Amino acid sequence: MRVILENQPIKVIDPSELLRPEPAFAEKPVGQFRDYSVDENDPIKERVRKTYKEMHTYQTVEFVQDKIKTWTKFNHFKSTIKNALIRLNDLVDESDPDVDLPNIVHAFQTAERIRKDYPDLDWFQLTGLIHDLGKVMAFYGEPQWAVVGDTFVVGCDWSKDIVYRDSSFVDNVDGTNPKYNTKYGIYKPNCGLENLLLSWGHDEYLYRVLVHNKSTLPKEGLWMIRFHSFYPWHTSNNYQHLTTNQDEKEIKDWVLKFNQYDLYTKSTEIPDIEALWPYYEKLIDKYIPGVLEW
């Protein structure tokens, strides 16, 4: 087991949080969002495009199955939720070139906005605080394209609203495999989200960490964590031939309720994290106490 001791900052660019959102979330003119045009003179756009190109090349069924096997041994390190959150001080989201803030700031911004609107749903507040904790994989050798960005289903034809869908999958070997390149692929019609294999990233990892360590967060919080980067489904409404009525109504409603706070709480206004810790430590002790296996 490794203990989190490293002090070397890691910078990531999370495509899911850069050029967002679809009209469902927009407060600015829609044209200012989701601009995935190619501009080789724009370093941010080029890094986003490169991240998705690598993700869409290497995130195969075999790759995802291997990552699940590797990370669900839960033998990489041991840490409390608080110490893992503090580790996010060394994780800077480079998606915004003008706001150079550690990921932990975004965590508290999200939690506090939810707390303001839902003062009685303490589990919802805690979900906002921890939702990006799966990004700690970046400290243990995972490339960014296996940590951040929009997720999608592997094992069937790639849906039409995945970003860069028309060009970024050309080198993915699953595309020439008749077992995986059809509408349903390896899945049965309306088999449900629970039975789908999504591209590997921080969402699925944190979900599995919480389940393994017997967190008592309600299922709604676990849904938010597991599917908040699954934009082709929850915002573009793809994959309805694979989902169930519960997925489309109950689960999607909760994920969309969460995502408005994830996307629109980033600002240069930094919360007083030290003053807020006592409140959130109580929530951690209530729902995810002790030292966890990661």
* H-E order: EEHHEHEHHHHHHHHE
Strand arrangement, major sheet? 1-3-5
Helix content: 40-55%
Total E-strand runs: 5
Unreliably modeled segments: 1-7, 19-34, 94-99
Write down the overall mean pLDDT.
86
Question: End-to-end span in angstroms?
Answer: 9 Å
Tell me about the largest β-sheet: 3 strands, mixed
The number of helical runs is 11
Strand content: 5-15%
Whole-angstrom Rg: 18 Å
Overall outline: globular
Judged by helices, strands and strand pairing, the structural class is: mainly alpha
Structure explained in plain terms:
- This protein has 294 residues and is mainly α.
- Helices cover 41% and strands 5% of the residues.
- Strands 1-3-5 form a 3-stranded mixed β-sheet. The protein has a two-stranded parallel sheet with strand order 2-4.
- The radius of gyration is 18 Å and the shape is globular.
Task: Please supply descriptive tags for the structure shown above.
globular; 294 residues; 11 helices; disordered N terminus; three-stranded mixed sheet; mainly alpha; single chain
